[in-house]
Write a structure and sequence with these properties.
mainly beta, 10-stranded antiparallel beta sheet
Length: about 140
Amino acid sequence: MVDRFCGKYKLEKSENFDEFMKALGVNIALRKIGQVTKPQMTISQEGDQVTFFSESSFKNIKVTFKLGEDFNDTSPDGRKVINNITLDGNKLIQIEKPAAGESGKEVTYVRDIDANGDLVVVCTTEGITCTRLYKKV
């Protein structure tokens, strides 16, 4: 099921990423870093545990989770959030909500593999959509 996502990908391009980060309330300094950072994403699965590992010159982030189960996390910009990731057809759907007592916005991330085998991530919050293309390496 998640097998089709497993592999390594390098961020190739982002569309509307600054507007997306702005909608989340990310400060200008972090938005500038986010615009130039080209992370490598590794997706792997062991048993029922799925791992997303993002490596960049700015920050490395590792998240391990079970499909369909809520998990606590801290977003790259420091927000305390609760995530739930499910498999819907051929897409991984991630719903991110502010943790209890935290302010913030709900974000949806839809991950899919395109015809070239590349990872496409569509990020949406408050009607603002960003598309990020990660080329398979």
